[in-house]
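Exercise: predict the fold of this chain.
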Amino acid sequence: MLAAIYRALRTASEQAADELKAIGAELPPPDHDYFVAVAQQKLFLMLCGADTETFEGGNPELAAAVLQNGQNILDHYWSKGFTKTAG
């Protein structure tokens, strides 16, 4: 499953670069991380039961649990020397 996700992200990134080149755009293509961020957002919405186009209808309790999971990963694996800032 993850191989298919990674392949789709790579394909989207390559396709965007090809399409920009084909129209002669001088803009650089979006970075691979852009596609990862968009996919993460859409998957989060799907996981929480929200509409992926309007963002409406999601389960806030499930969303909070998913976000807490991310916070737990940060706290457990990455927080050494990390200082939270307001905002």
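Check your answer against the key: The longest helix spans residues 2-22.
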